[in-house]
Amino acid sequence: VIHLTIDRRPVSVEPGTTVLEAARQNGIHIPTLCYLKDINKIGACRMCLVEVEGARGLQTACTTPCTEGMVVHTNSPAVREARKLVLELLLSDHNIECPTCLRAGNCELMQLAQEMGVRTVPLKGAHHQVHRDVESGAIAVDSSKCVLCQRCVAVCREVQGVSAISVTGRGFESRVAPFFGVSLNDAACALCGQCTVVCPTGALTEYDETEAVWRALLDPTKHVVVQTAPAVRVQIGEPFGLPPGAVSTGKMVAGLRRLGFDQVFDTVFSADLTIMEEATELIQRLQKGGPLPLITSCSPGWVKFAEHFFPNMLENLSTCKSPQQMFGALAKTYYAEKAGIDPADMVVVSVMPCTAKKYEANRPEMRDSGYQDVDYVLTTRELARMFRQAGIDLPSLPDEEFDNPLGIGTGAGTIFGTTGGVMEAALRTAAAWLEPGSPSPKIEFQEVRGIPFQVREATVTLDGVTLNVAVANGLGAAGWLMEEVSAGRKNYHFIEIMGCPGGCIGGGGQPIPAKGPDALDEVRLARIASLYTIDERMTIRRSHENPAIQQVYAEYLGKPGSERAHHLLHTHYQA
Ligand code: HC1
User: Given the CA of residue 356, which atom of ligand 1 is nearest to it?
Assistant: First the structure.
């Protein structure tokens, strides 16, 4: 144990602890900007400068290890002056059109400027060149708001294992961009949006489609329907001050009706549909001997990553479209027919915790209804902004129910939103189908739950056959797992991969925690717990028991894997 003094307070820490960690462990606040717990400790921004007695000059707390007898001052006049100067320098080259920025109200740079008492930006001089990139239609890049903290670079490399972006150029030419300065759209970027979650400013954000959705809602010739992803219901309360993971399903539905959507539907319905098709595909592949492992394909960031980096594995990906896309295809066919609406006059909007879903909706093959199946994708953050623009205070709304029939979902479809959930939902139905006489078919598969360090492995016995399964969340883990499988070092029958840490509840379009990205782990766990609670409380917890799903097969699709189901609900991938 090491003993030191921080701000005249005696403190004891384990060897290897940095001054920043020691301060945090003891409730002493040191401001940070580039620092990201366990991911980015590069001391680049100099916001965490502290005074260490006997050391030459000020030290960065995030990179300085504690030593025996050290005496640290975190709040001396020299420290405050240095931090203020650092901020003034950053702001002198920053686009300070703050009221119009998407991050207004939730910008770490602005919070720090307030904290440090910066009242003017006295330094004038040269500026970085400004580059903006919205070509992907999923993520927007604005270098005029970038502080070069490199959190985005670190998360892309260390967590996601993609390394799509880096700092290119020198001096005032420097900016964060893919190699050779190309657009994100032309890079091997998965568009997962994890960079947007850790960006402290408005330099990296979701591509905003709220105006387009407002226009559709105001167009009297359009029938506008909305679907909401499983994870959104446990995220949307957070920007309105509800605790992380607060279940806000009914209030969200009420809010969407007040925005003017004609029908408010649930992606949980089509998650159940995905299970019907995917469990059928799993059983067929098991019976025919492959190709195995079957790998889930509902996470579009993961699909894009696989297309870039593992083209040899594409035949292992389930041909099932994601629930978002199954919903769109059915909305503009089955629902349009039932409701007597011309699909040309229908607008399908999704609310997703994901930036890659915007890209998925725009993929050219996602037009099996004869139209673009999903017209607009809003992230959870965009929906929160629309609620605010409409003066809707979510917590004070009453609870309302989804519309029918595309609004009926089960517990299985709900847990799609967390890592392990798609696997568990598929196993619930596969178990029931393979063991029809079983007196108590298994519902909860605890062995595939939780956020694994890299990959969670389990064996599951169905109808006397032992299946090896694996669950990976985050593209870094996915890449590692695919290397193992490609090399033949690991053998599985079924793999679930979600592109973001924790699954969709940790997606690139999630609300950014008020406490900053270091609170993400805690927030993700709260959201996961809430999804399992919703599942536990539902009377129908298996997808094939969803009456609306039974109805859509009886009235329209025939049976799982039918020709029509294949036409509307399945897809292909491009190496
Ligand atoms: Fe997801 Fe999915 S679970 S991909 O994480 O399969 O985004 O929530 O909507 O499509 O259902 C996201 C979440 C979401 C799809 C479903």
Answer: 7
